[in-house]
Specification:
The protein is α+β, with helices and mostly antiparallel strands. 58% of the residues lie in helices and 16% in strands. The protein is built from 3 helices and 3 strands, in the order H-H-E-E-H-E. The chain has a 3-stranded antiparallel β-sheet, with helices on one face. Helix 1 packs antiparallel against helix 2. The chain is rod-shaped and about 80 Å long. The termini are far apart.
Length: 111
């Protein structure tokens, strides 16, 4: 009985790094999906501002959370607003490769 308990402990200790890695990868995928959702909303906010005749960049920045200020890029071409966002990550080099972008288009309303 004692040997089986010792073997289970050894197997658990051996499996911990794999479990930790799987957990980190899962959290990274969730953070990337969250970043895409945020980029979608921010691009739409920018397009709506553009349609109303207001600057899109300010609306996009207001729609983004504070942590995304340094990790986002906004571009406006014609009526298209594109937001590129790097998701939060414990691995900065990996996060750059997982950057997401979203675009929204709006026409200016006739006045």
């Amino acid at each position: 009985m004692g040997r089986a308990g010792g073997q289970a402990t050894v197997e658990l200790v051996a499996a911990l790094p794999a479990l930790l890695l799987a957990g980190l990868l899962t959290l990274q995928l969730l953070a990337t999906g969250y970043a895409l959702t945020i980029a979608d909303g921010a691009a739409e906010a920018g397009a709506l501002a553009l349609a109303a005749g207001r600057p899109a960049t300010g609306a996009v920045r207001a729609a983004l959370p504070d942590w995304a200020d340094d990790d986002s890029e906004v571009s406006v071409r014609g009526g298209e607003v594109t937001v590129r966002l790097i998701p939060p990550s414990p691995f900065p080099s990996l996060a750059e490769h997982l950057a997401v972008s979203s675009s929204a288009f709006a026409r200016k309303s006739p006045r």
